[in-house]
Amino acid sequence: MSKIKQLLLLTCCLTCGCQWFSEPEDLSEPTHKLAIVESDNLFKANTTNITREFRAILDPIGKALEKEKSQYDFKIQAYVDDFGTHNQQTELSKNQAELIASYLWSKYDIPLDHLIEIAGMGSSEPIADPKTYKGRSINRRIQIILQPK
């Protein structure tokens, strides 16, 4: 299989300041790019009310996606913590994902046909202990996945 450029991994949170932190390198297998944004930095907890940091965090991501749009399709997945019913979690996370997609589409001309998934994942797939405050905060996140076309 031909070599491709490894996609950059982007993590956005208050500690890293939203920056690319790995350089491209050749790989023999196709891969994808993943951006993880702690949604507490985008939305007030368990709401779709945006924070003051919303644009400051999403704008660098939007600029990066704009450069990649000819080569990749995008998935936007929103996750929430385990408070509320399953239906409430799914609806909230779906609304958050749609708000992110709408922002990126309107400001950075990301074509809607490139957004192959806009999903509310509820509290599925926790990446930290949901029984602790810190864990719940980490589990509230937005993942933007770029897949080669």
What's the mean pLDDT score? 75
Computed structural class: alpha/beta
Q: Count helical runs.
A: 3
CATH class: Alpha Beta
User: What is the CATH architecture assignment?
Assistant: 2-Layer Sandwich
At the fourth CATH level, what is the homologous superfamily?
A: OmpA-like domain
Distance between the termini: 16 Å
Count of discrete domains: 1
- The share of residues in extended strands comes to 15-25%
What name does CATH use for the topology? 60s Ribosomal Protein L30, Chain: A
Number of strands: 8
Radius of gyration: 15 Å
Percentage of helical residues? 25-40%
Biggest sheet strand line-up:
3-2-5-8-6-7
Summarize the main sheet: 6 strands, mixed
Instruction: Note poorly predicted spans.
Output: 1-30
Task: Spell out the helices and strands N to C.
Answer: EEEEEHEHEHE
